[in-house]
Amino acid sequence: MHEASIVTELLRIASDECSKNGYTKIDSIKVIVGRATGVMTDALLFAFNVLKEDTLAKEANLIIEEIPVRGVCKDCGKEFESNENYLIFECPSCGSFSVNIISGKELNITEMEVSQ
Ligand SMILES: [Zn+2]
């Protein structure tokens, strides 16, 4: 499962940050997930709740903020935004599939709450 390997990586980064700064417990992790990543947030949450056991984040909440996809059409030059969970985007103006994705591929931790 794709989401499980993402969560494993997120937990590794979060745990490293947490212990590097002298804390022992992660209370919450906030991530942004761009819709162009194709990541299913339900699956991400599910994987998090399974994989957080035995880590510093075992009592942590995962807060997911989804970022819409923004793209520019290479044919007509129009910029558009999409909230669909697709990996292939169609220009809403001219129907071209030749688009540049300018945002929506993000997948990062943006905030983390930790305690001693
Ligand atoms: Zn277009």
TrEMBL record:
Role noted for this protein: Involved in the maturation of [NiFe] hydrogenases. Required for nickel insertion into the metal center of the hydrogenase.
Protein name: Hydrogenase maturation factor HypA
GO biological process terms held by the UniProt record: protein maturation
Binding site for Ni(2+): H2
Residues reported to bind Zn(2+): C73, C76, C91, C94
Top-level taxon of the source organism: Bacteria
NCBIfam families, per the entry: hypA
UniProt GO MF annotations: nickel cation binding; zinc ion binding
Family as reported in the entry's similarity comment: Belongs to the HypA/HybF family.
InterPro entries xref list: Hydgase_Ni_incorp_HypA/HybF_CS, HypA/HybF
Protein keywords: Metal-binding, Nickel, Zinc
Nucleotidyltransferase as UniProt keyword: no
